[in-house]
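SEQUENCE, STRUCTURE TOKENS:
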Amino acid sequence: MTYKMHFQIIKDEYYPNIISHLKLIVPEFKTIFDDDEIYPALASFSEFLISNVEKDGLFNKCIMFINEAIERGKHSTEDVIVLQVFQLIYKNDDVIEKIKPKLSKEAILLFNKFLLLTNKS
């Protein structure tokens, strides 16, 4: 008797176009990376977000992008947001306090989950 495992593949249709979504929501963000260079582009977005934390309008657009990405994306999107955006934020207590109240319910759950893991190490 042969057993076959069936894995459900969860397609993340948001992920391949994440940089296009970012540019639509935050047109002020400019990057040297192409749209398919998602990880380095989002790392530079994290630096952009942190450097504009005091500019409420621009900061709110950045948060709007993060909330949309978490709400519409799946695992690949969550991974890249945590690794490339949240990781830099976790190093800055002032930004943590400013961002937390603005994140959506789904985004704050993800943010806090990995913040706790980061603080344990």
Summary: The longest helix spans residues 56-72. The chain is about 65% helix and 0% strand.
